[in-house]
Amino acid sequence: MGGSLNMVGYGLAAIGPGIGVGLVFAAYINGTARQPEMQSRLQPIAFLGFALTEALAIIGIALAFVLKAKNG
């Protein structure tokens, strides 16, 4: 039962990075729509924000698997 609860916990924890990625790209699209000439400066910042936000999800799933292996 404990292992399956780890995965349920990860599923709930993945909502945060999912919302974060959506907010990062929404801000990028909004900024590019307002000032198209800034697209070349905003794009690397958007990808950096995406990578950092997605790293949280990757750390979360790794932790869920480590806890599952530890608990049996």
TrEMBL record:
Keyword line: ATP synthesis, Cell membrane, CF(0), Hydrogen ion transport, Ion transport, Lipid-binding, Membrane, Transmembrane, Transmembrane helix, Transport
Subcellular location: Cell membrane; Membrane
Keyword Cell membrane part of the UniProt annotation: yes
V-ATPase proteolipid subunit C-like domain boundaries: 10-67
Claim: Transcription regulation is one of the keywords in the record: no
Membrane topology annotation: Multi-pass membrane protein
Residues flagged as site, Reversibly protonated during proton transport: E54
Stretches that traverse the bilayer: 12-33, 45-67
Domain of life: Bacteria
InterPro entries: ATP_synth_csu_bac/chlpt, ATP_synth_F0_csu, ATP_synth_F0_csu_DDCD_BS, ATP_synth_F0_csu_sf, ATPase_proteolipid_c-like_dom, F/V-ATP_Csub_sf
One Pfam match: ATP-synt_C
Known role: Key component of the F(0) channel; it plays a direct role in translocation across the membrane. A homomeric c-ring of between 10-14 subunits forms the central stalk rotor element with the F(1) delta and epsilon subunits. F(1)F(0) ATP synthase produces ATP from ADP in the presence of a proton or sodium gradient. F-type ATPases consist of two structural domains, F(1) containing the extramembraneous catalytic core and F(0) containing the membrane proton channel, linked together by a central stalk and a peripheral stalk. During catalysis, ATP synthesis in the catalytic domain of F(1) is coupled via a rotary mechanism of the central stalk subunits to proton translocation.
UniProt family annotation: Belongs to the ATPase C chain family.
Name of the protein in its database record: ATP synthase subunit c
Gene (UniProt): atpE
